Amino acid sequence: MMDYGKFKFDQSKRAKEARKASRATSELKKVRLTPKIAENDIQQKTKRVLGFLQDGAKVQVFVRFRGREQAHPEIAMDVLRRVATGVAEYARLEQKPVMEGRMLSMMLAPRAGISRPASKAVAVEPRHRNRRRNGESTESAETETREPVAQSV
Fold it and tell me: Annotated region Disordered: where (predicted)?
């Protein structure tokens, strides 16, 4: 004989863990590009995609067409190809580039075993944001972020 209350508790606990696990793996970030994007902007967006992938999120990269840009989808394919080659060692192509209305999009998923390296700048950044939200001066927050660098030199 089994205690029904214990059975229901275990069942709800397993369901909660399953929801938690699926939520962590199903996070989707979107990055929008245009066909006329400059080379440096592509590099910046690639860094952003790389950060999302290292955090374990899937990334949908899409190029949005405006007006006559739709006549040249090969330019957008080239933009997506450059982003994909920039993150090739950290991502796998989950969905090939597909035209959906006025957007050409592809889906990237993180490769197994890739994670963000620990760095001091990442640890300091959230405190800086919280101070801004709380109305504190950003000047004092900036000096605090510079001090650890000066002490290490």
Answer: 115-153
Amino acid at 144: E
At residue 123's C-alpha, the angle toward residues 52 and 91, to 5°, is 20
The 10s digit of each residue's pLDDT in 131-148 is: 555 555 555 444 444 444
Among 125, 42, 127, 54, which Cα is nearest to 86's? Answer: 42
Query: What is the pTM assigned to this prediction?
Result: 0.59
Type of residue at 98: V
Chain-centre distance for alpha carbon 147? 29
Report DSSP state, residue 89. T
Cα 58–Cα 102–Cα 104 angle in degrees, nearest 5 = 40
Spatial strand order in the sheet of 91-100: 28-33, 58-64, 103-110, 91-100
